[in-house]
UniProtKB/TrEMBL annotation:
<feature type="transmembrane region" description="Helical">
    <location>
        <begin position="106"/>
        <end position="125"/>
    </location>
</feature>
<feature type="transmembrane region" description="Helical">
    <location>
        <begin position="134"/>
        <end position="153"/>
    </location>
</feature>
<keyword id="KW-1133">Transmembrane helix</keyword>
<dbReference type="Pfam" id="PF07314">
    <property type="entry name" value="Lit"/>
</dbReference>
<feature type="transmembrane region" description="Helical">
    <location>
        <begin position="195"/>
        <end position="217"/>
    </location>
</feature>
<dbReference type="InterPro" id="IPR010178">
    <property type="entry name" value="Lit"/>
</dbReference>
<feature type="transmembrane region" description="Helical">
    <location>
        <begin position="7"/>
        <end position="30"/>
    </location>
</feature>
<keyword id="KW-0472">Membrane</keyword>
<keyword id="KW-0812">Transmembrane</keyword>
<protein>
    <submittedName>
        <fullName>Integral membrane protein TIGR01906</fullName>
    </submittedName>
</protein>
Length: 225
């Protein structure tokens, strides 16, 4: 049965951090209060000409769209002193791509979370000493990777933000005009820098909690065939 334990150990080391990261991404991406605070911080009402109330209504519809609760994101609102369509064709096409990424992300999150839970339960009953080691190794690997990634990203956020888009998108629809496109006016680079930092903090907190749990686990071996 040792080979099964080793297999589940590898699955856990790979899948658990992915599941945790995607859960944190979902939490950060759909926190409506975070959006409200950033709109105020970056004076988005003045930049877009859209009132705070309408910005929040647009945000709610946008998040529903990304969750798959809306078929489209064609919205009309008061911009300045006239009613306009909020997102134009290029923005709509990009948002469609973003929604597809979220859809795939949900699938990966659910799959890796399921595999992680099954693996942890199996190892817990078969070899608790190995479980302790796996959690410690997983935590330390993620702390190292997070440290390196943090240094890279915040040394030049725009550079790696661009790489991120080039990797995930097969087109250049994400290249929007901040003078005319409301989507990028609502979500400037600083917004994504803030949300990335927030995800880092959430993930770091959970990894440290996981490491603490691992260190507190008893060292007495419990193994069954």
């Amino acid at each position: 049965m040792r080979e099964y334990t080793n297999l589940f150990a590898i699955i856990c080391i790979v899948c658990l951090p992915i599941a945790m990261l995607l859960i944190n991404l979902e939490v950060a991406a759909f926190d409506i209060s975070f959006f409200k605070s950033k709109y105020e911080e970056y004076n988005i009402e003045d930049v877009t000409g859209i009132s705070e109330e309408n910005l929040m209504l647009i945000t709610e519809k946008l998040l529903d769209y990304l969750k798959g609760k809306r078929e489209n994101i064609i919205i009309f609102t008061e911009v300045g002193d006239k009613i306009e369509q909020v997102f134009e064709e290029r923005e709509l096409l990009h948002l469609k791509d973003v929604r597809e990424l979220f859809r795939k992300g949900y699938i990966i999150k659910d799959l890796t979370l399921l595999l992680s839970i099954v693996s942890l339960i199996y190892i817990f009953y078969k070899d608790r000493i190995k479980l302790k080691k796996i959690l410690i190794v997983t935590s330390l690997i993620q702390l190292i990777l997070m440290g390196l990634l943090y240094i890279l990203i915040y040394s030049d956020f725009y550079k790696y933000f661009t790489y991120f888009h080039k990797i995930l998108f097969s087109n250049d629809l994400w290249l929007l005009n901040p003078k005319t496109d409301i989507l990028i006016q609502m979500y400037p680079l600083e917004f994504f820098s803030s949300i990335t930092y927030r995800i880092f903090v959430l993930f770091l907190s959970e990894i440290l909690a996981l490491l603490s749990i691992a260190l507190l686990l008893p060292c007495r071996k419990h193994s069954s065939i």
